[in-house]
Specification:
- With 113 residues, this protein is mainly alpha-helical.
- A two-stranded antiparallel sheet has the order 1-2.
- The protein has one domain.
- The protein is globular, with a radius of gyration of 18 Å.
- The protein contains five helices and two strands.
- The N and C termini lie far apart (41 Å).
Length: 113
């Protein structure tokens, strides 16, 4: 299945092309959609990490404000920002230091808050 069909909030573009795409692609898993949006919207076309707002500006600059991609990205911006925030929060939680088992009465590692 082509990954590009599931780029960040691509359903906004797909609505404009629904008659062409509807039969070709299944609905994607929400958790994968958010992870994909995070990766797509925090990486520039050359693979460098950047802020999501800079990425949005880059897309508008590349396509122009009236292009279908720019209009779709504008409509999807709340979804994109929510996805990036959710994944960023999840990643930050995963990066919390873990105490060794000997410091925990249950003998299991625990996250330090």
């Amino acid at each position: 299945m082509p990954l590009v069909a599931y780029h960040s909030c691509a359903d906004n573009e797909a609505r404009k092309l629904f008659h062409v795409l509807a039969a070709e692609f299944d609905t994607e898993r929400p958790d994968l959609a958010w992870a994909r949006a995070y990766c797509d919207m925090t990486t520039d076309p050359d693979g460098r990490h950047l802020d999501v707002r800079d990425r949005l500006a880059e897309i508008h600059s590349r396509y122009g404000r009236e292009h279908l991609v720019s209009r779709s990205i504008t409509a999807a911006t709340p979804c994109i920002l929510a996805a990036v925030e959710a994944v960023t929060t999840a990643l930050e939680r995963r990066r919390q230091p873990v105490l060794p088992p000997s410091r925990n009465t249950l003998g299991k590692p625990r996250v330090v808050s």
